[in-house]
């Protein structure tokens, strides 16, 4: 008779596992095989699955994509990077106020009528630059607002029918 070689290491572990599975079958217990574990989603090991941690930026990008928030998130980024996009001169006198996604309108308020007029003249170039940053068609129109003026009540020195303070923005 041939003598069986003595088992050690991995071979010994395989034999022990096989024996344990066989005993479990004899007792009537169900033994999970590798393909059953894949089917039910239970697994362990070095491969990635949905339970693994992901970087915060990747998780936020996935959430934004799943919810369809790409355009509002991009416009929100523009609100924060306004001075980088339009330049420090314009940013010092004009600031974005709101964005209407349905109409693709960005509302910008200026601190004087001169800057409002200047921004209206530059609107086409700004729309092109914003769409380059955000993606085509994100901003179609820039709505320019003049300065906020305090509302003056009628008084002794107020002419009836005059529209407002010394700044003549209509």
From TrEMBL:
Note the InterPro entries from the entry. Answer: DciA-like, UPF0232_actinobac
Residue stretches spanning the membrane? none
Q: Which Pfam families match?
A: DciA
Task: Spell out the Basic and acidic residues composition-biased ranges.
Answer: 21-39
Q: Where is this region: Disordered?
A: 21-52
Protein family: Belongs to the UPF0232 family.
Classification via PANTHER family: UPF0232 PROTEIN SCO3875
Its recorded name reads: UPF0232 protein KSE_39230
Q: Which organism is it from?
A: Kitasatospora setae (strain ATCC 33774 / DSM 43861 / JCM 3304 / KCC A-0304 / NBRC 14216 / KM-6054) (Streptomyces setae)
């Amino acid at each position: 008779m041939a003598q069986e070689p003595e088992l050690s290491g991995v071979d010994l572990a395989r034999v022990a596992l096989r024996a344990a599975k066989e005993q479990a079958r004899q007792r009537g217990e169900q033994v999970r095989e590798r393909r059953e574990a894949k089917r039910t989603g239970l697994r362990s090991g070095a491969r990635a699955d949905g339970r693994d941690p992901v970087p915060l930026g990747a998780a936020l990008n996935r959430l934004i994509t799943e919810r369809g928030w790409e355009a509002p998130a991009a416009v929100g980024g523009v609100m924060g990077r306004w001075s980088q996009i339009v330049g420090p001169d314009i940013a010092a006198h004009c600031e974005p106020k709101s964005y209407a996604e349905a109409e693709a309108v960005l509302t910008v308020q200026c601190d004087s009528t001169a800057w409002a007029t200047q921004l209206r003249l530059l609107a086409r170039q700004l729309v092109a630059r914003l769409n380059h940053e955000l993606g085509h068609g994100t901003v179609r129109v820039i709505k320019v607002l003049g300065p906020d003026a305090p509302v003056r009540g009628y008084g002794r020195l107020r002419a009836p029918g005059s529209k407002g303070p010394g700044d003549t923005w209509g």
